[in-house]
Amino acid sequence: MKMVKLIEKYKVFSIFFLIFIIGLLSYRDYGLAIDDEIYRENGIYYKNLIKEYLILLSKFDFNGIKILEEEIYNNPIRNHPAIFETTLAFLSEIFNIEEINEIYYLSHFFNFFIFSCSLFTFYIILSRRFKSSLVSLIAILTIFFSPRFFAESFYNSRDIYFFSIFTFNIFTIQNLITKENKKNIFFFCLTSALLISSKILGLICFIVFITIYLFKKILNSSIKDALNKTLRILVITYLLIVILWPYLWFDPFSNLINAFKDIINEHNQLKISTLFLGEYFSSTSTPSYYRILWFVITTPAIVSFFFVFGFFLMIKDFVEKFSDHTDKGGELLLQKDDFLDFYILFTFLSVIFLTITYNISQFNGWRHIYFLYALIIYMTVYFYLKIVSIKKSPITLFTNCLVILSLIYHIYWIYKFHPFQYNYFNIISRHYIENKFDKDYWGVSNYNSIKYIIENDKSDQINITTISFADLSVSILKLEKQDRNRIKIVHNFNEAEYVIDNYMKRIGKNYKISKNEYSKFYEIKVNEYVINTVYKRN
């Protein structure tokens, strides 16, 4: 028995060690997203503000703090706590990293490190819930080798970071409902505060938990005791949110409400041109099923298929449990597995409903709700285990073969199209997406195109421009300093020697390349569709 457990531990360690090694070999290969520099500067701002605030507080200089308060009120970034970027700014200072490309290497490694830790945490969640180490490992590998998640685990410090924090939060929920002690309560409140401080969507997840938790406590004890314990969680979480969000230090109540209002308004008023089903939409007028369709076409087909069945199977099981035990229905929430299942299901439904109903501006695929992938994989495993529980069935054998083949296919695909996995469309949809959906919507591939130009043009100064919705001044920040100094970004086409197109249209503008003046110099293809083209002046 001890030998079996030892082998099990080595197997798990080997898989996660492999994941980490793959990350080490890959983290330097990706470009930058269009708004990366804005977020990095936000982090620097908050780092300086925190240091200055603490110095003023140590001197009891309340006049200085008042001036600092006025400064942050006039700064548009006050509504964005930028926890990841603030931590990055402190790490850069601690390790004395000053060169901008090295800072971004650190950012990509740091983001991947947090993601890989969240995968290990999710493995624990699944293995505890479903009592199968092997199936849990396969689920983790499915997430890791989902091409878009693989690529974005390095550079997407907004949505993948939020996915990671959400996974940590589910882990603390599982701990809390298993054993409700001070340590587990504190860590749940901490991850909830991180979740809410990172994205307003975290508030939905927290409210769902509190609702189920309160109901469970009312069933299990007196209403007074239930309210006291719930209030304790609310107070601790709120205090931690204030600590993590410097803007709230100056007015914890009003600033929190105003920040949430401003964040919702800013996002819903954001207008970006987005290609959807072959037609250009403003992001504020995309169809309600925009994110659902993006999920279907950019997620491994087997995950979508299993998830749909897992989703309805989970609903069916809950309905049957409540209907068969109407007098004991509440007892379902007293069982930790049922509690967690219900939280997973209800959170998924709540987020989907609220984002479709109230989140007006939809763009960049389904990345804003990437964190739901944890719930999707959870329901996928739920269905898979139901299938394989049928002993000696051809269906079981067929299902296992599908899972293995899908994993092998996506590992090969990631290897073949590295580092452009963020342009993945699944095996069913990829034949129909050309000229119908945005591809490199963040302009990450611009870095690779610029790098190619530098490697093939030895001029001391190279003038480049773009016709796309992109910011080349961000893309060049990943270059070595001597290469960066050779690049001059111009906004006059007459001055440009190279024009880059990543096929993201600007609203109200439709620039075209003159074939008389420019010819194709380089292009990046994924699955035979072009995601980036460089034109050189004739």
Structural notes for this entry:
The chain is of the alpha/beta class. It folds into two domains: 379 residues, no CATH class; 92 residues, no CATH class. It has 20 helices and seven strands. The strands form two sheets. The chain has a five-stranded mixed beta sheet with strand order 4-3-5-7-6, covered by helices on one side. A two-stranded antiparallel sheet has the order 1-2. Helix 5 packs parallel to helix 8, helix 10 packs antiparallel against helix 11 and helix 15 crosses helix 16. It is globular. The N and C termini lie far apart (73 Å). The model has no long low-confidence stretch (mean pLDDT 92).
Key features?
538 residues; alpha/beta; five-stranded mixed sheet; two-stranded antiparallel ribbon; globular
Q: Determine the structural class based on helices, strands and strand pairing.
A: alpha/beta
The end-to-end span amounts to 73 Å
Strand order of the largest sheet: 4-3-5-7-6
Mean pLDDT: 92
Number of domains: 2
- Oligomer category: single chain
Main sheet specs: 5 strands, mixed
- The topology string of helices and strands comes to HHHHHHHHHHHHEEHHHHHHEHHEEEE
Which residues sit in consecutive blocks of at least 5 with pLDDT less than 50?
Answer: none
Sequence-ordered SSE layout with sheet pairings:
Layout: H1 2-26, H2 36-58, H3 62-73, H4 83-94, H5 100-130, H6 133-144, H7 147-155, H8 159-178, H9 182-198, H10 201-220, H11 223-244, H12 254-269, E1 273-276, E2 279-282, H13 290-298, H14 301-324, H15 336-358, H16 372-388, H17 394-416, H18 446-456, E3 462-466, H19 472-475, H20 481-484, E4 487-489, E5 498-501, E6 518-526, E7 529-537
Helix pairs in contact: 1-5, 2-3, 2-4, 4-5, 5-6, 5-8, 6-16, 8-9, 9-10, 9-11, 10-11, 10-15, 14-16, 15-16
